[in-house]
Amino acid sequence: MAELPFKLGIHPINWVGEDVKEHGADTTFEQIVDDIQKLGLTGTEMGRKYPTDINVLKRELSERGIGLVSQWKSVLFSDPAYQEEELEAYRKHVLFLKEMGSTVISTAEVGGSLHFDPRRTPNEKEVLRLDEAGWQSLAEGLNRAGAIAAEHGLKLTYHHHGGTVVESPEEIDRLMELTDPSLVYLLFDTGHTYYGGGDPLTVLRKHYNRIAYIHLKDIRQEVLDEARAEQVDFVTCIRKGVFTVPGDGCLDFAPIFQELLKREYTGWAMLEGEQDPATHNAYEYAKNALDYIHSLLNKESRL
User: Fold this and answer.
1) Cα 261 from Cα 296, distance rounded (Å)
2) What whole-number distance in Å separates Cα of residue 282 and Cα of residue 185?
3) Which one, of 226, 220, 221, 227, lies nearest residue 163 by Cα?
4) Under the phi-then-psi rule, with left for phi > 0, alpha for psi from -120 to 50, and beta for the rest, what region is 129?
5) pTM higher than the cut 0.85
6) Strand extents, DSSP E, 123-210
7) Which residues form the Xylose isomerase-like TIM barrel domain (predicted)?
8) 244: exposed, middle or buried (Cβ count in 10 Å: 0-12, 13-18, 19+)
9) C-alpha span between 282 and 9 (Å, rounded)
């Protein structure tokens, strides 16, 4: 197998849903990290079943040879009224990840989202896209948060995400245009790129110089088509099973890995499935995804 120049890890969202709480509700932290160790992977993100005591978390991960790569941080920077409060929370988040030895922070704006924005009400039906003032406020907040991260040796990596205001290729472009490239990086997610209407390879090539972190996620085309026809929201799409691990959906990862190998990407790339583990066993799907990736790399090494 061709040797990877980058580090391959896995997200606990394969075992326990973050947006759909019933997915993996009975799964324990120990099961997740034992499975990760058995898979031979050495990186994870923080999950909602993980202990929050730093000493306990450090001990449990260290015993299994696993490091904490990152943790999701929601922000509400698009509304200036929340910015100072949000920046203070971001600083605390940075200090936690710094203590855990992480180097990147998965960061996403929740303003306008149906499911994540605390200002939204249950009877609303659509994501509220940003106006010009919202874009400017978001960019200012991200630049300031990125400076806090940089002060402590970490990178803010922006997670474009389904069901949020930075979802489409055009919105990714706008965010990259408005933010400081020395302070705000991109978390490139293959599945969310496609879900948002983009071509993952195109987005990867266009914004490669800003990418500091990667999530490898696949899409079930038939589920996405059905969801679009029914005009359901993002969380309903997850419940329907729109996402899966690489090799189990419609995305072609061969050119994506070719691009990463050619450019000698050295950061982390995390396997993600984000599906119900009761019907899609997290360990088995992850193992199949690793076999798929190894087959692609073996093929690439023979070319």
Assistant:
1) 12
2) 29
3) 227
4) beta
5) yes
6) 155-159, 184-189
7) 34-289
8) buried
9) 14
The reported pLDDT for the residue numbered 5 is 77
CA dist 20 and 24 (Å) reads 9
CA separation for the pair 302, 300 (Å, rounded): 5
Rounded CA separation 23/275 (Å): 7
Q: What's the rounded Cα separation, in Å, for the pair 139 and 146?
A: 10
- Tokens for 114, please give them: 């149906």
- For the record, the structure tokens of 18 come out as 């973050």
Beta bridge partners of 113: none
pLDDT, tens only, 34-52: 999 999 999 999 999 999 9
Segment 218-236 mean pLDDT: 96
Residue 270: what are its φ and ψ, rounded to 5°? -110, 130
User: What is the C-alpha separation between 295 and 1, in angstroms, rounded?
Assistant: 8
Neighbours of 52 (CB within 10 A): 9
Residue 1 is predicted with a pLDDT of 46
CB atoms within 10 A of CB 62: 10
Query: Who contacts 274 (Cβ-Cβ below 8 Å, separation ≥6)?
Result: 13, 14, 17, 18, 19, 191, 217, 238, 243
Give the sign of the dihedral formed by CA 24, CA 214, CA 35, CA 66. negative
Angle (deg, nearest 10), helices 254-262 and 282-302: 60
Cα–Cα distances (Å) from 200 to 191, 215, 217, 226, 240, in that order, read: 8, 11, 11, 21, 22
∠98-100-103 over CA atoms, to 5°? 50
Nearest CA to 38 out of 220, 283, 230 is that of 283
Q: Cα–Cα distance between 222 and 206 in angstroms, integer?
A: 28
Question: Quick one: which of 145, 152, 128 has its CA closest to 88?
Answer: 145
Closest by Cα among 249, 154, 161, 255 to 201: 255
